[in-house]
Amino acid sequence: MTSLILTVAGADRPGLVSAVADIVDAHGGNWENSQLAELGGTFAGVIEVSVVPEHIDELQAALRGLDGLLTVTVHEGADAAAPRDDAQRLSITVLGNDRPGIVREISGVLNTHALSIESMTTETRDAAMAGGRLFESIVTATVPASADLGALRAALERLAAEIQVDITLD
After folding, report:
1. Domain assignment of residue 19, given as a range
2. pLDDT, tens digit, for every residue of 34-50?
3. For residue 94, what is the DSSP state?
4. What is the rounded CA–CA span in Å between residue 125 and residue 136?
5. Cα-atom radius of gyration of the chain, to the nearest Å?
6. Same domain, 53 and 107
7. Between 20 and 30 A from 56 (CA), which of 10, 92, 137, 148?
8. What b/e readout covers 148-170, taking b as 16+ CB neighbours within 10 angstroms?
9. Does 84 score more than 60 pLDDT?
10. What is the distance between the alpha carbons of residues 150 and 19, in angstroms, rounded to a whole number?
11. CA angle, 31 then 78 then 22, to 5°
12. Are residues 162 and 127 in the same domain?
């Protein structure tokens, strides 16, 4: 089986997931993993499917048939790296007043300390009592054994003070 990664986007409406699932199934594919969401009226997602190599071209052609309903891009999946025994996961929560640059600043610190982001969700919402907008993010990152967690924690604390957000590490 070959792993394919599908990125999908289109105006949100009922039946989009079903349309992709029907095509994957019709071509002998198996829906493995996905992250799907509606954001600002647009349905978007990433889907991992597995399919026998002989059906890849037919599957891709069928997915192109969704054009106008969904834009689908197909990427060949990378071989998953074997899990490392010495790698650990870190959960990082960010909460504060929304402003441009928060994701850039946080991801920059994580990159500097060689952390790999496994998942990241972000949300802005109205601040109930104070007015304005709140930004919240939850990041799960893989920490290499060589990382200096004390230095990472200090860098995130400095950043939190600079951009005036709360950052929690678990």
Report:
1. 2-76
2. 999 999 999 999 999 99
3. E
4. 8
5. 20
6. no
7. 10
8. eeeebeebbeebbeebebebeee
9. no
10. 48
11. 20
12. yes
